[in-house]
Amino acid sequence: MSSPPHDPWFFLAGRTAARIARGRAGASLPTREVLAFDLAHALARDAVHAHVDRARLARELAALGLATVEVESQAVDRQTFLREPDAGRRLSKASAARLAEIAARCDVAVMVGDGLSAAAVDAHAAGLLAAFVPHVKRLGLRMAPIVLAAGARVALGDVVGTALGARLAIVVIGERPGLSAADSLGVYITYDPRPGRNDAERNCISNIRSEGLPPVAAAAKLAWLVDAALGRSLTGVALKDESDVALPGASPVKKLDPR
To answer: Which regions in the chain score pLDDT beneath 50?
Structure first.
């Protein structure tokens, strides 16, 4: 079998997961690329329809000394979750009662939700929280038990944060999978969480995975945002992420000449 013709873009393909420099066979793609696309699509579909192994995650967090509580949204199954987004933004009655029993004033409430990629949560959530906990202790913050939520959308964190009496809600959730990554984790930070908050009132850290933003680096960014949010009493568009200047090995940000 002859090798594909030289493509000057090939050197970029080794530097990104984006689907570039795929080559061609006549008017179409080479067979290997068609099969790779089909595999990526299948992995993305599986990530959306899978369920987080909450029992394993609870054991991993218990090993870190973290208490957990399991809750469910009103999305009673995966089909309801996908077809009725608002159901994933509301707690079931039993779960609301469960949180009411442990509610106490705290600085930070962390919810880990399946979102649209159980694979991301299974792969990276425990590692992210393991790297974040030392920052919580360093900052002297009171943290509620970790809430493990099934059928969760981002806004469910507002309900959870309110129920736990938290000053700040952190939502660790599986991001919508793409054809280059099906296991990308996202984190959303909301000051003064309450139902009705919108996305402009949150900060987000995305693409947390081994080939993207490593969990340890993401935890450092998260700690910076949490500290800044509590110090300034806000999150969202008014809070800019300047954590890079504080991360180990980072170069100072160059300020533009106003002229």
So the answer is: 250-259
